[in-house]
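Customer ticket, subject: "Can you confirm the structure for DNA primase?"

Message body: Hello, I'm evaluating your service for our small team and ran a test protein. I'd like someone to confirm that this is what the system normally returns, since I don't have a reference to compare against.
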Amino acid sequence: MIPESFIQELLARVDIVDVVGRYVKLRKGGANLLGLCPFHNEKTPSFTVSPSKQFYHCFGCGAHGTALRFLSEHTGAPFPEAVRSLAASVGMTVPEEPRSPRQRAADRERREEGSRQQRILDQAQAHYRAALKQTPEAIEYLKRRGLSGEVAARFGLGWASRDRRGLAAVFDHYEDPALLESGLVIESEDGRRHDRFRGRVMFPIHNQRGQLIGFGGRLIEPGEPKYLNSPETSLFSKGHELYGLHEARAGIRAEGCVLVVEGYMDVVALAQYGLNNAVATLGTSTTPEHLRKLRRASDRIVFSFDGDGAGRKAAWRALQACLPWVAEDISMRFLFLPESHDPDSYVRAYGVQALRAYLDEAMPLSRFMLDELAARHDLNEAEGRASCVHEARPLFAQMPEGGFRLQMEREFARQVRLTPEELAQLLVAAGPGPGHAGPIAGTGQRPSGQGVAPGAGLAGRGGPFASEGGYAPEPEGAAWPGSENPGAGIDLEAVPPWQDAALRGSGRPRRRGGGSRQVTPMARRLLRLLLAHPALVSGLGDQQLELLAHHPHLGLVRQLIGLASTCGAAHAGALLQAADPESDLARAIKDLSTELMAQDLPDPQAEWDDALRTIERQTVQEQCDRLIESGLATDEDRRRYQELSRRLARLKAGAG
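Agent reply: Thanks for trying us out. I re-ran your input and got the following:
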């Protein structure tokens, strides 16, 4: 049996757009992609794929699911074979034998170790932030860089003191191996330890789910290295992460593009001036994993580099990483600032509007590639042109087939004085290069540009699937379609709270008598939020969990929270894969498929908090009503009523 943990890891690695795109021609339709459904005959596209939720749904026949389900149902392959095929495409090996108790214990230990490292990083972050408030020289440095306290707080900036063992005051056991594994301390050959970060402004690094995974530190006085990142750990890999991506989500949507800069100070400085769509690589060249995340964030990517020789070389490396991803529905551009300027210094010198104007004039990838090739060879002589074609061959080989590559070949043919047919023959004779029509070299992952049909340009963004969708109100107690007992009520004994051991152990809801759980409009609203944004589960506090655990109409919500907590799903598709296909929860997810295809809310956390406040107001009001009905016969009843009334007044006033 294939472990559920492996399936979840696999779904986190693959991109459903790549998988579906091998079999279905997809085009942009707002935040999603549209195509003709492969599961039924249709002339108008109703088959929708969500890149953010890793989920497909056909509005015509109701087919829906994950990349794994699509592969299995479309090709007819048995589920294990579909898993092996998809795993091979991303360089993963499927565990073929049942997991022994020892192996399961090791898996559990690894998960617990990850959680422990997370707690250690959070504890260090609290210390660094508190230290910044007590360090005038660090505050003065940030002020000189033009940063306000508000922006520093928004990005969680902190300060690591110059004390060699400053964290010894934070952690009772400074010799704990977890401090070493988390990258916070360094152990010398003689066994003595000291803090990795000293005398630095600290920049916390979060993953896309908002979880703290590492740090970057910058010296505020002369010294080397000026920038220092956390080492590679089980939580942090600089080749996979982009600084500021989590914080920039709303800014990327507002600006319509993502700006890639070279340092975290650039990201924070641009945010200070109102440009909130910048992200930064962490001291490494752009990688395929970076491109995958950038592609999901926006269909317009602008790379910013210094205008000097080093900047041009870095830009050329980034261009080569981009080639497997080029397509008709994505724009990749390169911005070269004047020499001696980076985005931080440029915006401070000339203002944000001047930088925006520069962004509008950023060089398209095609122009940068052709100009750079021309600059490296003398195109006035046959030898130079032949040499230019030779250098261009592996570059074209990395591009997926399609309209973009065709346009590039025609322009390059004119540049080297060949006909398009002659150039095509030379490129074919050279054979496919790395990444051509296949996985990205070194990753086993196919770029999202593969499988995009020529001419599949940007579709109108005002289509029926691009608008924001809300939950459809239902009568109190309405059951999911297809339930065997539509009138069945919620039995709190039959549906244990989400933290019940049995539920946490399996992630599956227990069924009694074959009945379907009833769903109120509020439960539907919470389910939709959790499905669209599983990361909300990690932010639930004890008070919120207590409120949900005892509410009589939120059984499915508790089940979904338990499932998300158990399997660690990162998107709606992964949650659907983890749910028992015969359960009410799976039916609930299917019923919400249409709503899940709507664009993401601008602030899902605020929507979630508002929903829980509404639940709490209703709960407190019901308790007050019951006390009134009882006649407030005892002093305890009257005291309780007064306490609840004050609480209700605060909730209605929005004070919490």
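A couple of notes from the result: The two ends are 47 Å apart (CA to CA). Residues 432-517 have pLDDT under 50 and may be disordered. Feel free to reply with more questions.
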